[in-house]
Design brief:
Blueprint: H1 18-25, E1 32-35, H2 42-49, E2 53-57, H3 61-72, H4 80-87, H5 98-102, H6 110-123, H7 129-145, H8 157-161, H9 171-175, H10 178-192, E3 201-203, E4 216-219, H11 233-236, H12 238-244, H13 249-252, H14 275-285, E5 290-296, H15 303-311, E6 316-324, E7 336-343
Parallel strand pairs: 1-2, 1-4, 2-3, 4-5
Antiparallel strand pairs: 5-7, 6-7
Bound molecules: S-adenosylmethionine (SAM).
Amino acid sequence: MTSTFPSTRYRGSKVKLVDWLWDCLKTFGCESALDAFGGTGSVSYRFKQEGLKVTYNDLLPFNYQFGLAFVENDSIRLDEAVLSKLLEPRVDRVYPSWIQDTFSDIYYTEEENKWLDQTVTHLHEIDGQYTKALAFFALAQACLMKRPFNLFHRKNLYLRLRDVERSFGNKVSWDRPFPVCVRGFAKEANGAVFEGRQSCSATMLDASQVPGTFDLVYIDPPYMNATGSSTDYADLYHFLSGLLEYQSWSDRVDFRSKHRRMLRHKTAWTDKNQIHKAFDELFAAYPHSILAVSYRSDGIPSSEEMKDLLLRHRSKVTIHSYGQYTYALSTNQRSEELLFVAEP
Ligand SMILES: C[S@@+](CC[C@H](N)C(=O)[O-])C[C@H]1O[C@@H](n2cnc3c(N)ncnc32)[C@H](O)[C@@H]1O
């Protein structure tokens, strides 16, 4: 059976661009690669399919689970015993009510919140890091699928429940029962697991801190638009971080926010005054590698600045264009998708 990367809902995912990316990079004959801002893992997975020794990295713990499940993991799958233990309530058991108490009327219905408290309790009792990572993937995708815009940026359960004609979204998916969604994603997750030609690994570090040497470093940082506003992944997906770190979730919630986001931490990648320095330090951190930077033509730094930044660290820069590309749910239809490839 051929393995297929599972469907995901994640802002800025490169899942539809991976074949083009590989076409731009395959001539270098690289044996090892670091995917420094791994996200869903779609690019790492494509490199793994090509037999590279891949290191997936992402700073966010919930993304790291995807790297464990599909890049590092070569053989473990979810079986029916694990799935039914995850999904079915135990009559003799008292479950916590943190999600019910904290997120009432925000993202999911009362019944769904209760199911989430129960299921996340079961999730954290799963033995084996790859089994748990696969189960977390299935649960996280189900959570995203049932959200308008697939995000946790607003208190907008009402969009789902309102009895009106809709020009967007998918009411059928929003209302599909959680256990049905999780089973569907578990099947996709199982279909994605395969053994790489070389051993691959996943890390959860700042992009410039990953130990090792890599023939290729692929760089796909959060996109910052021309006005300096950028995608704060920790913020958009805080609920998934909470599910993964259920025990400490309450310490991290910003109770002043209507949608109970987590307390925010500034990073250089979301600050227009620091982003050039962040790129500069990242490029310096892997002095011997080919650098491949995914970039949208209307962002910060500008494309001229990006080329100059790369030329401070490498002798040759080639720019590949995919042409105009619109990401799912994006309203930006003018920007061009570019790949900067810099050689030592
Ligand atoms: C544009 S997304 C990557 C998408 C990915 N290529 C894919 O196909 O799914 C950027 C990712 O960078 C991660 N990130 C943000 N700051 C980071 C940092 N300092 N180090 C490592 N990862 C970081 C975010 O969590 C997010 O998943």
